[in-house]
Design a protein that fits this description.
Elements lengths: L5 H11 L3 E2 L2 H6 L13 E3 L4 H14 L3 E4 L16 E4 L6 E5 L4 E4 L5 H8 L4 E2 L12 H7 L6 H4 L6 E8 L4 E5 L11 H5 L7 E9 L1 E2 L3 E9 L2 H13 L6 E6 H9 L11 E9 L1 H15 L4 E7 L2 H12 L1 H5 L5 E8 L5 H15 L3 E6 L4 E8 L4 H20 L18 H4 L2 H14 L14
Parallel strand pairs: 2-4, 3-4
Antiparallel strand pairs: 1-2, 5-6, 6-10, 7-11, 8-9, 8-10, 12-14, 12-15, 13-14, 13-17, 16-18, 17-18
Helix pairs in contact: 1-3, 13-14
């Protein structure tokens, strides 16, 4: 932990006024995120302008005080936890939608804008911003940018990094930089806005974003395909992704996830379901029927138990109830949960799920898999009792083996949650030494004194 020099406390109080908080109750509010890790900062800043962010960074750099950027704390990897103390910079007051330009398919926003509020503002323009994490209703755009958030729509529309045109950010030296351009094409220098997305506040603090928007589809239809076993579902995923019609969502649930959704969530699912795919298509109403037929053909094949078509919005919502009922159902198995979002090539989903189930038996802990099959991005949910030291030790040992399995299958540690604290120690297994050295060199160029979110993402 650090201790704020009195001179820095005075400078930040002069810069921020009542938006500089040092009382313990306020600091505790910003000490944790959705990872349930906790560490008390020395102060909390609530800036409203980029100029305040510039002044704050320069003051903290001069005093060698850590700075941790924060959105709404929905991150699950501990990326927003101030483990080295210092100053938490919460962007909740920088929450303005600065401009919406339908003709340019662009929105300019401050980082504290909630994803859900942005989507609501875009509806009258028949546009949307594609990233749709589970926390979309209450996570901030800045947080989505920091972790490269994705969600079910990423299979067709891409994750956050694919839907950003330009960023304005403050580096660890207190310099205001402008990355990218508010045009859909650009070949002028390095692609630095994509570099900042997913950097978890370790390179710069984003103070403005120009976002790439997409026309809202006229219609949507959903399919629910149930298979006898995981391998049949995975083969169907490969067929679905190989044919010309790209689904707008393609979600997977293993047998344990299906059972939970049925027995606890009340979803209408048969007892012989070994795996389930939720498939959705969107687009023009006149061509959607053709697209659905193509997806149904691809979803068919060996191992298919049933294939249900939701021809109207009401039926579609009922089909998606199985997926929505799943996350709350996990807590019925155990109060503790490690939820990691590993990614493998789509063709290797069966090996991943089979390997995870073997680990579940080996470590005598329930592990449930579901997620975004079209990207090979599965959420591996390991359930345990935190009060039981033996179970806790087995849970963390099992998760290390999940990471090793994922990497052996040609996958990677994270698809949309990021690295933060949770996966930092595993980075040398996923990234070779020369590449890690280059990442550290990039970090040093942006943040030569190492004050931005220290102890995250990059290993020592």
């Amino acid at each position: 932990m650090t201790t704020l020099p009195p001179s820095l406390d005075s400078e930040l109080r002069s810069l921020l006024g009542e938006a500089w908080r040092t009382d313990e109750s306020e600091r505790l509010t910003y000490a944790y995120d959705n990872s349930r890790r906790q560490s008390l900062p020395d102060g909390v800043a609530l800036p409203t302008t980029r100029e305040q962010v510039v002044g704050l960074i320069r003051a903290c750099r001069a005093a060698r005080i850590p700075v941790v950027a924060r959105g709404r704390g929905t991150n699950t990897t501990g990326a927003a936890v101030p483990i080295a103390g210092g100053v938490v910079v919460s962007f909740e007051r920088m929450n303005k939608i600065l401009d919406i330009r339908p003709g340019d398919r662009c929105a300019v926003v401050e980082p504290g804008v909630l994803n859900g509020d942005l989507q609501s503002a875009l509806k009258p323009h028949a546009l949307f911003w594609p990233p749709d994490p589970t926390s979309a209703g209450y996570s901030s755009v800045g947080g989505n940018l920091a972790c490269n958030a994705g969600g079910p729509r990423a299979v067709k529309y891409g994750a956050t990094r694919d839907n950003v045109l330009a960023l304005t950010a403050v580096t660890g030296t207190g310099e205001l930089i402008h990355c990218g351009t508010a045009t859909t094409k650009g070949a002028t220098g390095y692609d630095m806005q994509r570099l900042l997305v997913g950097s978890e506040g370790t390179l710069a603090l984003i103070v403005e974003a120009s976002l790439r928007l997409t026309p809202a589809p006229q219609s949507r239809r959903a399919l629910r395909a149930i298979y006898r076993e995981v391998s049949s579902a995975a083969q169907a995923v490969a067929r679905l992704m190989a044919q010309p019609v790209t689904p707008s969502m393609l979600e997977f649930m293993d047998a344990d996830a299906v059972r939970l959704a049925r027995d606890v969530g009340g979803a209408d699912l048969p007892p012989d379901a070994g795996a389930l795919l939720m498939i959705e298509a969107d687009g023009d109403a006149q061509t959607l029927a053709h697209d659905i037929e193509a997806l149904m053909r691809a979803a068919g094949g060996e191992g298919l138990v049933s294939l249900d078509d939701a021809a109207d919005e009401s039926t579609r919502e009922k089909l998606w109830a199985a997926r929505k009922a799943l996350s709350p159902s996990l807590r019925t198995l155990a109060p503790g949960k490690i939820n990691e979002d590993v990614v493998v090539p789509v063709s290797r989903i069966p090996q991943l799920v089979d390997g995870v189930h073997a680990l579940s038996r080996e470590f005598d802990l329930p592990i449930v898999c579901f997620g975004h099959a079209g990207n090979g991005n599965l959420h591996v949910n390991l359930l345990y009792h935190p009060a039981d030291e033996a179970q806790t030790a087995r849970a963390h040992a099992a998760m290390a083996r999940v990471f090793a399995l994922t990497l052996s299958l040609g996958g990677t540690l994270s698809g949309e949650h990021g690295i933060g604290l949770a996966k930092r120690e595993f980075m040398p297994q996923a990234i070779d030494a020369p590449t890690l050295a280059m990442m550290r060199a990039v970090k040093a160029a942006f943040d030569p004194d190492g004050i931005l979110n220290p102890g995250k993402l990059l290993p020592d």
